Amino acid sequence: YVNQRLQREVREWCYNLCLEEMPKMVQEAKEKEDWQTACYLQWSVGRSFYEGHGAYTQALEAFEEALRLLKMVSKQSEKEETNLLGWISLVYHSQGQYAQALEYHMKSLAITQAVLGEQHASTATS
Predict the structure, then answer these.
(1) C-alpha to C-alpha distance for 47 and 38, rounded to whole angstroms
(2) Looking at CB atoms within 10 Å, which of 1, 9, 49, 120 has the fewest?
(3) What 3-state DSSP class applies to 73?
(4) Contact 87, 56 (CB under 8 A)
(5) How confident is the model at residue 116, as a pLDDT?
(6) Cβ neighbour number for residue 78 with a 10 Å cutoff
(7) What is residue 28's predicted lDDT score, i.e. its pLDDT?
(8) Residue 75 has what pLDDT?
(9) H-state helical runs in 55-97
């Protein structure tokens, strides 16, 4: 019992520490104009700390900011953009907002089709 309680307390402490420090790290990357790092960190905040714990509003904000940052990367990766659009779609779906989920899914699919073509295996599974 003590071990489980200690593990739970350590997990909660780590979660709170990361939740406090990650935004600072994102800000530091933005100040250095390291958009790729800022994007990755912002995506991590959305995925690990918000969406993974049911905080969907904050997850959407984090993913939208990550998408905005991704567009600032000079060599934007379509794969990264489709991944972010997919995460946004999943969050909307988790909230029962199916129209918005479909909208973001279709944006992701359109990019995948444009880059890979309609017959590519990745397009079929999108």
Answers:
(1) 14
(2) 1
(3) coil
(4) no
(5) 67
(6) 13
(7) 92
(8) 60
(9) 56-70, 78-94
16-44: string of b/e by CB count within 10 Å (b at 16+)? eeebeebeebbeebbeeeebbbbbbbbbb
* Residue whose entry in the numeric block shows the structure tokens 């994102």: 26
Q: How far apart are the first and last CA of the chain?
A: 44
Positions of the chain with pLDDT under 50: none
Q: Which residue has the tokens 């600032």?
A: 72
Give the Cα separation of 124 and 117 in Å (integer): 10
Return the pLDDT at 98.
94
79 is written with which tokens? 């794969």
71 in Cβ contact with 80 (< 8 Å):
no
Residues 6+ apart with CB under 8 A from 59: 46, 47, 50, 51, 87, 91
